Amino acid sequence: MRIFVGNLAYTVTGDELEAAFSVHGAVESSTVITDRETGRSRGFGFVEMPDASEGENAIRAVNGQEILGRAVTVNEARPREERGPRW
Q1: Beta strands in the chain (DSSP E)
Q2: If exposure means fewest CB atoms within 10 Å of the residue's CB, which of 15, 25, 29, 69 is most exposed?
Q3: Domain-by-domain residue ranges, the chain?
Q4: Quick one: pLDDT at residue 80?
Q5: Dihedral, CA of residue 67, residue 79, residue 31 and residue 5, to nearest 10
Q6: pTM above the 0.85 mark?
Q7: Higher-confidence residue: 66 or 81?
Q8: Helix, strand, coil percentages for the chain (3-state, nearest 5)
């Protein structure tokens, strides 16, 4: 299950994101999305959990909780929309 995590503090790392979710089950991967040009965090990330029921429990448990001082928004990630070419 792919989980979206929003409203992250810009200093949160992938390891800290993984730690917040690993208490609720196995974490396959965790990624904080960064800006291509600056390398700075964009304030959101994704967590992959192999077990859907653990993922749903993690979403309920972590949504609204603070990670490094900011209350995060957590929900199941939607499929990425296809975008046209950039002109």
Answers
A1: 2-6, 29-34, 41-48, 66-67, 70-71, 73-76
A2: 69
A3: 2-76
A4: 78
A5: 0
A6: yes
A7: 66
A8: 25, 30, 45
Contacts of residue 38, defined as CB under 8 A and 6 or more positions apart, other chains included, come to none
Task: Provide CB contacts within 8 A for 62, sequence distance 6+.
Answer: 5, 20, 21, 24, 72, 74
Q: Which fold has domain 2-76?
A: Alpha-Beta Plaits (3.30.70)
Look up residue 23 and give its two tokens: 């208490």
* One-letter identity of residue 15: D
pLDDT confidence band for 82 (50 / 70 / 90): confident
Q: How many residues are recorded in the chain?
A: 87
